[in-house]
């Protein structure tokens, strides 16, 4: 519906409302919303006359008009929505008819609330009560990719959009690609229902070595006006490959439908990677790089849920042979050494056998360690090969891999993903982090985070700090963020304050560009074509992705754009906060992570204890110790890490010999990767070695870390009282890059309102102002759960 038509409707509704009020008739929500649109548009004209920025209100009006239209479609198609509510998630199935009935007016009511807030805010701006930073719009057609930042008109910019966006709509459709919804051009968005999609996929190459010219057009025909990316979609393998190599789909994973060890598969994909690079070299659609894989993992454990989806149900003769070669190399050809550890009696490496999939009961055994480590090495080899072949066709190709952060933050390690190695390999950081503000829909009891926090941030923050520690100078592309919904996380009335907080947190911790999951509305209000008809997908989670998603919540999608506007309006300040030195580094060992049952849960104990102390945390590994500048941190902390290889142990000793500071608890470094006792002990060398007693609590370790790390002494200190003993506000302090004084960023992740006080190092109160509103805050104020503050603190 055109603006002039809606404006006319708004005027008509004003007359209708006055008439209805006089006669006692009920006024519809749609009529109320249209009147409020007219009121906000009138205010916008007044603001423009005062030369005030109204870009934020333009977005409010755009989403309001869209969702009025969407609500009309939902009103007319209740049966379709009833089916969508009932297709996957049990909590919605039992209420599907009720929810379909309520949805249209729910959307209209949220539009009214959105407009009320917009009207109130703009009135405050016009009266001078709020002074906002002007919106810095993204120049989608002219993005520069620098070393660690994206630039628009020479200034840092954070890009936003939606993943798998209204499939079937042309990239030139301004109702789908615009400043409100984002305008990153996607290459590879028709995912899941079929293998032949707009992506770099297995079916591009024919058996005779020629190319499927029609499928190639799906790559070459993508508009080259906007910044974009291309995706390697690995879901299937052509029949002609299977006829030649019947094992080609053995050892497949959920989203990689073939054996990565198969020689013919490697040959086919090598040709496809080279050809794709040649055809797309220099195009804007590759500015955000080539995503080499969608959520790769190869879980080898028998009891893992991925077994239901044919992931690693068996492995090919090629994988078995490669494992034997790997074992022979790693045991230096000594089968006796392997037999002693595995408790077997093989006569040679060729005779080696083992149960597969691996029973979980093997966890912590030498066999478990060896296969998990081999699985990681072979996956890293696969991606190294694909990236090398791609760069034969396009030497300048930027790359990332959509790594699931829970593969790092959770305890399981049979998945084959060496997060550090793959992040080092590619030229961009890639991920699809998720958070959640409610417990899983299928949870049978409260989740641990609920006791203290407004939302679950552990996976996001731990993994982002690790990724940014591995690759501090790379662009970070979250190509499928699950902040708004995930397979078992969704709620119709999502708090918009949570949306603002989590996008801000992710950006502070490194995110340069993000695609939210997902935008599935066509401009007429109908669900995009995959969500129509019977939903029967290989991945059943897709069928349930529409119901209770952001596509039904105007306040949520508006807030996504509003927080990105605000982040981009202060992008230089955000980059100053992000580029801070990380004075404390937590030692991470993949060796302990593979062997232990709860390694990452235990690591979070100390991470959480330090996360709320005002400085950015970092991680440290053997590779980082050997490659990175030691002046970038003060202290390395080793916590509950009993299993380390000899080379990991040697790297720590070398760091001490060079003058470094290491704090080690009594539970760490005592065993090698196979659980054998280590006789050697760390010595201080030229550095400082602090060996903690067995009795040391996590609070005592925190105090020791703070005492020995000069970088934790900050010029402005934030103290918090939230009525509990558990801190909830994470904060950062940095010199203001645009003037004197300091910037203080505070995010309340806690479930309680926090009473905050700001003081300098001498304990004197400091005067703070809110950068986003221009309001004076003084030195003491409250911050509600999910609250966000960026403060300008005057120099003393």
Automatic annotation (TrEMBL):
Coiled coil: none annotated. The lineage of its organism: Bacteria, Pseudomonadati, Kiritimatiellota, Kiritimatiellia, Kiritimatiellales. Residues 1-23 form the signal peptide. The keyword DNA damage does not apply. InterPro entries: Class_I_gatase-like, GH, Glyco_hydro_42. It comes from Pontiella agarivorans. This is Beta-galactosidase. It comes from the Bacteria. Keywords: Signal.
């Amino acid at each position: 519906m055109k603006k002039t038509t809606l404006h006319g409707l708004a005027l008509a509704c004003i007359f209708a409302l006055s008439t209805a009020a006089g006669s006692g008739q009920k006024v519809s929500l749609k009529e109320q919303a249209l009147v409020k649109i007219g009121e906000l548009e009138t205010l916008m004209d007044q603001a423009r006359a005062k030369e005030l920025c109204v870009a934020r209100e333009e977005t409010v009006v755009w989403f309001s008009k869209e969702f009025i239209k969407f609500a009309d479609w939902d009103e007319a198609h209740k049966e379709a929505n009833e089916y969508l509510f009932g297709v996957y998630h049990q909590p919605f199935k039992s209420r599907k008819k009720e929810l379909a009935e309520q949805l249209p007016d729910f959307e209209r009511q949220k539009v009214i609330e959105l407009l009320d807030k917009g009207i109130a805010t703009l009135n405050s701006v016009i009266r001078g009560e709020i002074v906002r930073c002007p919106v810095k719009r993204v120049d989608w057609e002219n993005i520069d990719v620098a070393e660690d930042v994206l630039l628009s008109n020479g200034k840092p910019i954070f890009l936003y959009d939606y993943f798998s966006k209204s499939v079937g709509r042309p990239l030139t459709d301004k109702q789908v690609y615009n400043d409100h919804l984002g305008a990153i051009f996607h290459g590879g968005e028709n995912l899941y229902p079929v293998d032949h999609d707009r992506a770099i996929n297995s079916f591009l190459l024919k058996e005779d070595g020629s190319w499927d010219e029609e499928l190639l057009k799906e790559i070459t025909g993508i508009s080259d006006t906007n910044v974009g990316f291309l995706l390697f979609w690995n879901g299937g393998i052509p029949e002609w490959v299977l006829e030649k190599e019947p094992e080609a789909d053995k050892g497949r994973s959920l989203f990689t439908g073939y054996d990565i060890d198969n020689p013919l598969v490697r040959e086919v994909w090598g040709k496809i990677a080279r050809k794709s690079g040649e055809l797309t070299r220099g195009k804007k659609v590759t500015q955000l790089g080539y995503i080499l894989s969608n959520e790769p993992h190869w879980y080898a454990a028998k009891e893992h849920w991925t077994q239901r989806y044919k992931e690693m149900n068996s492995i090919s003769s090629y994988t078995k042979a490669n494992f034997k070669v790997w074992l022979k190399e790693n045991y230096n050809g000594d089968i006796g050494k392997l037999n002693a550890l595995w408790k077997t009696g093989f006569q040679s490496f060729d005779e080696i056998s083992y149960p597969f999939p691996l029973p979980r009961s093997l966890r912590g055994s030498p066999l478990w360690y060896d296969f998990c480590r081999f699985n990681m090495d072979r996956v890293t080899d696969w991606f190294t090969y694909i990236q090398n072949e791609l760069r034969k066709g396009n030497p300048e190709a930027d790359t990332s891999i959509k790594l699931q952060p829970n593969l790092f933050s959770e305890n399981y390690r049979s998945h084959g993903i060496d997060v550090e190695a793959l992040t080092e390999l590619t030229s961009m950081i890639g991920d699809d982090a998720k958070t959640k503000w409610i417990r899983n829909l299928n949870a049978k009891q409260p989740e641990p985070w609920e006791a203290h926090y407004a939302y679950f941030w552990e996976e996001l923050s731990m993994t982002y700090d690790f990724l940014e520690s591995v690759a501090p100078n790379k662009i970070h592309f979250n190509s499928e963020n699950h902040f708004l919904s995930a397979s078992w996380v969704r709620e119709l009335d999502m708090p918009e304050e949570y949306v603002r907080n989590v996008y801000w947190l992710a950006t502070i911790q490194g995110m340069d560009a993000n695609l939210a999951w997902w935008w599935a509305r066509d401009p007429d209000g109908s669900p995009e074509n995959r969500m129509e008809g019977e939903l029967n997908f290989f991945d059943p989670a897709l069928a349930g992705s529409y119901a209770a998603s952001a596509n039904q919540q105007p306040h949520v999608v508006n807030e996504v754009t509003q927080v990105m506007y605000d982040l981009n309006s202060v992008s230089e300040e955000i980059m100053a906060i992000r580029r801070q030195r990380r004075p404390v580094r937590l030692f991470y060992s993949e060796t302990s992570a593979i062997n232990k049952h709860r390694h990452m849960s235990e690591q979070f104990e100390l991470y959480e204890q330090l996360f709320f102390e005002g400085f950015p945390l970092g991680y440290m590994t053997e590779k980082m110790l050997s490659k990175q500048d030691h002046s970038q941190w003060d202290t390395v902390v080793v916590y509950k890490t009993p299993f380390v290889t000899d080379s990991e142990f040697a790297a720590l000793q070398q760091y001490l010999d060079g003058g470094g500071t290491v704090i080690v608890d009594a539970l760490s470094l005592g065993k090698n990767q196979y659980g054998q006792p280590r006789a050697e002990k760390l010595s201080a060398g030229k550095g400082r070695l602090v060996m903690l007693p067995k009795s040391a609590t996590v609070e005592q370790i925190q105090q020791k870390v703070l005492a020995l790390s000069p970088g934790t002494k900050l010029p402005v200190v934030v103290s918090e009282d939230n009525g509990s003993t558990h801190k909830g506000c994470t904060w950062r302090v940095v010199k203001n890059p645009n003037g004197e004084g300091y910037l203080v960023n505070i995010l309340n992740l806690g479930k309680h309102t926090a009473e905050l006080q700001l003081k300098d190092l001498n304990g004197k109160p400091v005067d703070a102002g809110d950068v986003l509103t221009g309001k004076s805050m003084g030195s003491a104020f409250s911050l509600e759960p999910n609250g966000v503050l960026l403060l300008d603190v005057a120099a003393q």
